[in-house]
Amino acid sequence: MPASLSIRVMSADDMDRALDWAAAEGWNPGRGDAALFRAADPTGFLVAALDGEPVACVAVVRYGPAFGFLGFYIATPAARGKGHGMAVWRAGMAHLGDRMVGLDGVPAQQDNYRKSGFRLAWRNVRYQGAPNEPASVPRGVTLVDARSLPFDKLAAYDARFFPAPRDGFLANWTTAPGHVALAAIHDGALAGLGVIRPCRLGFKIGPLYAADAAIAAALVGGLCRRASADIVALDVPEPNQAAVRLAESFGLAPAFETARMYTGAAPEIDRAGLYGVTTFELG
Fold first, then answer.
1. Radius of gyration for the chain, computed over Cα atoms and rounded to the nearest angstrom
2. pLDDT of 33-62, one tens digit each?
3. Could you list the residue range(s) of the whole structural domain that residue 57 is in?
4. Strand partners, 30
5. CATH number where 240 lies
6. pTM greater than 0.70
7. Residue where one domain finishes, among candidates 99, 120, 141
8. Which of 87, 110, 140, 220 has its CA 20 to 30 A from that of 97?
9. CA–CA dist 53, 134 (Å, integer)
């Protein structure tokens, strides 16, 4: 590491700057992401500064003792190819220790991630556009404000689709100002969950979980209607072809893709029920 390069935990100003970098990359961050991201792991957002000037960043959020997620990995255009990004990457991986690590990386970096021990699990495709008319709610299904349900039920449901408990993050994500969270109830049981949040351009839906495509479509329609969403993005795990068809049915088109990778065998989750990932930055 060059003597003039230092690595520190992001301040609030650093986070705002990093979100501007993400916007410049076309990632379209959420308007309230800064506080929610930092709350997930206050020491898990690192920035590399060259002679005091920030040049690269990474998110390395720890979800308990066994799993972590790496994202938000950006170097400014002028700093690329000089080792500054690799320096903050190494510091981030050290922060995660011996945990299994997941990431959503751009395809151009897959080979580099493989060299660091990551294995491809699947592709995610961002579908984006002006959504069609909301879908009808299936017979026997009711959409309710997710905040009206006991939180332990939401947390247990989320655990089916994510490799580690993330109760604190989920509590903040479902209740943040501007976020709308809906749950689908079928025969008295939780059968779907979706959150929509305002972004710099339009809205993003994530996570989106559902017992079947009809319930997922009802959630998307309900979320778009309640948020008055003009432009919406949904990050779809490509192996779930029902999710791909769902995005297409709403008139959304592929915008870009990422590679979901892990430092080991892909964790066992309910992939069939995963219609949209929460966020490429935090998993």
1. 18
2. 999 999 999 999 999 999 999 999 999 999
3. 5-120
4. 199
5. 3.40.630.90
6. yes
7. 120
8. 110
9. 47
